[in-house]
Amino acid sequence: MENLWNENDCKDSDTLSCCAYGSRLLGSDRSLVLHGGGNTSVKADWQDVTGEVVAALYVKGSGWDLASIEVPGFTPLPISRMQELLRLDKLSDEDMMAELSTARLRPDAPQPSVETLLHAFLPYRAVQHSHADVILSLTNVEEGEETVREVYGDSVVVVPYVMPGFDLAQLVQEAWSDQAHSGTTGMVLLHHGLFTFAETTREAYSRHSDLISQAEGFLAQLPEKNRSEKELSGKAEVTLTALASLRKKISDVAGSPMILSRQTNSEIQSFVNRSDIDDLSNRGPLTPDHIIRTKRTPLVGRDVDQYAQEYTDYFERNNQRSENDLTMLDPAPRVILDQEFGLITIGATGKDADIASDIYKQTIPVLERLEDQRSGYVALGEEDLFDLEYWDLEQAKLRLAGPRKEFAGQVALVTGAASGIGHACASELLKRGASVIGIDINPETETIFSGPEWLGNVVDVSDEDAQIAAIRRGVERFGGVDMLVAGAGVFPSTELISELSIESWEKAMDINVTSVARLFHHLAPLFALAPAGGKVVVIASRNALAPGKGAAAYSTSKSALTQLSRVAALEWAEHGVRVNVVHPDNVFDTGLWTEEVLTERAAKYNMTVDEYKARNLLKMEVSAQHVASAVVELCSNRFGATTGAQIPIDGGNERTI
Questions:
Q1: Domain ends where: 346, 372, 399?
Q2: What pLDDT is attached to residue 401?
Q3: Domain shared by 250 and 135, yes or no
Q4: pLDDT above 90 as % of the chain
Q5: With 60 as the cut, is the pLDDT of residue 232 above it?
Q6: What DSSP string runs through 504-519?
Q7: Is pTM, for the whole model, over 0.70?
Q8: Same domain, 251 and 322
């Protein structure tokens, strides 16, 4: 492990700022900490409004990630109160968290870590804790404690696995009194991770680096066992309907639409093709913290129903262990290992699927190292894992994200997504929880939005091969397509029929109609597999109903597009797919309407630009957001009984009415 501490980054900072800096160094290494795992603390003075100084523990707060934590992410607590709690013989998890919450010196501080009392006990100012892969590579075998002793001698305290909280803090106190001495530099919690401590965060971080490096050195010198491997081919080009069908099964078992994300590379393919993959992968997670993201075991293969039954059996075997009345979590897998698909991870959102992916991609090399270089991987027993999976304090981490958004788990494809109406529709869908595949010719499409729910593709919609490639990329990223917003289009230059350019006519037809027909053709099988039913909204135009002079190509193409959509509504209804059309008019905050065009059109009607923009029955300016709100609402359950509709969004037009 490289020691990344840079004295210049922290030399003028206070104690707490240095703790935040050291925490970010720890959290930036995925082999040490993943997605909210690990915690850090520092003991420093707190001054209240009266000027009184209180000896305080600043500990990482729940909901903060070590990779990005700042000073507000640390919760200040009076050390004297923590010591009083540590002297108790017994303390329930609920009472412990209530006491910690009450003791906060800053009422707006986040809820403190469940391992706060352990941090408070350790007799050092600075503490760092990670779930380092290499430490788990030492501990997750039958001879885990003996291995830790072989690597570190008596320089670390070794603690058996106990769930985090008051019981762990008590066990650490006992182990500390038996094992700690002046040369103690760290503490290894079996099946859990590493603690280091010192008088400064810099030294605690340096000790972390040193102990990790020692473990890496030990593991590097171990010989590898011989094992037979299957002959591997390149990445399998799986059918998109196979992925979408698997996603539908998983969503049905989960009880709501889920995102399914496929990844594969040589390491993943080697792992999923191991002859012992069933046995090895089903022993349990590297550390119990992972269980809320990956479940206890992955699904090997594609028998979702069998996995769900086995999960139900697991719940029923262990349900009586809790004093509380537990409700079973959904029995759908969160990780799938398949010889053809590779690694598939599942979540209510793309972000959740990514977290499961990050965890399992870190898991694979550790499992292989333990199985191929050591005595064999050993996970915690089923009962311990169940206790953590259904531990209310662990479930609280998931509840911090709040309730599912309206379109969470659903995937929308939006054409023309980089500007105008398409951009507004993509933005609204993202806001309401959808994962969005964006298509646009704009070279900035890939980055027009950010985050795990956005997948931008630079595509000319008239290029069928490029469209197909974008669909494949989207389905492998999210698992299917549930919604389509067909927003890409062109408005050719105004030409009377007598002067009509056939090239302009053909371009309008190709982009405005034929490209959508191609999309319909390729997406139809995916819509039929949409877990919550397929939804299509086509952006046509007022010109489809009320054409104008000089707009033959545009008006005809939009009329043809409307007719295509009506046929799709007829054909796809039997699969539960809804197809509706909106007819915007004079949406002035789009690329079609430049200041020059607006000025020219307003002058033609002897109006000011503002008067021209409000040239409708409601005397209002219609915006792209007006269109987007209607489009996305048509995709909602509130319009679950509507298909084949045509809705004008134009402020009211006498010709249309």
A1: 399
A2: 67
A3: no
A4: 84
A5: no
A6: HHHHHHIIIIIHHHHH
A7: yes
A8: yes
